[in-house]
Design brief:
Elements lengths: L2 H4 L14 H12 L4 H7 L7 H10 L1 H32 L3 H14 L5 H5 L9 H14 L23
Helix pairs in contact: 2-3, 2-5, 3-4, 5-6
């Protein structure tokens, strides 16, 4: 095979993504074999002698990297149901209590349900100090029309009870 043409620089036919058959075969083989570059190049039709160099060159191509990413996402969509089944099975039937707990926690986490500790943990890196926070609250209350707000020594008391017309 003419490796220069297989890289897409020659006049070989390309698909709608601008990739030759060999490039597409490499991307599929790369995902299928778990990212073993040289093996993927050989499976795509490159010679054993040049497979390592060709794999490197192919992986430098942004179209091929994007295609590998797309194929990987598609495979995740397919195997996701199987992975969910395995996690559910572990959660319900594992003999080890630790395995059942970890499977349940992992499923909950992946479903978006965080443990209480994670919800309560606070990143204070951009937190306001107490005076700044009180100042912002007072400013917001003034903007809402509360005129009896002040900030003096000691705790600030603000009546925010809505007035009810009788």
């Amino acid at each position: 095979m003419n490796e220069k043409r297989a890289l897409g620089s020659g006049r070989r036919a390309t698909n709608e993504l601008g990739m030759t058959e060999a490039m597409e075969a490499f991307a599929n083989a790369f995902v299928e074999n778990g990212g073993i570059q040289e093996s993927a190049a050989i499976k795509a039709g490159y010679s054993k002698r040049s497979a390592r160099r060709m794999a490197y060159q192919l992986l430098e191509n942004p179209r091929i990297r994007a295609r590998i990413h797309t194929i990987t996402r598609e495979r995740f969509a397919i195997v996701g149901a199987s992975a969910l089944h395995v996690m559910e099975d572990l959660m319900l039937r594992a003999k080890s209590e630790t395995v059942r707990l970890r499977a349940a926690a992992d499923l909950m986490d992946r479903a978006g349900h965080k443990p209480l500790e994670a919800l309560l943990s606070v990143d204070n890196s951009d937190a306001l100090n107490e005076d700044d926070l009180v100042g912002k609250i007072l400013m917001m209350l003034k903007e809402l029309g509360h005129t009896e707000v002040g900030h003096g020594v000691g705790p600030t008391v603000v009546d925010v009870t809505p007035e009810i017309e009788e």
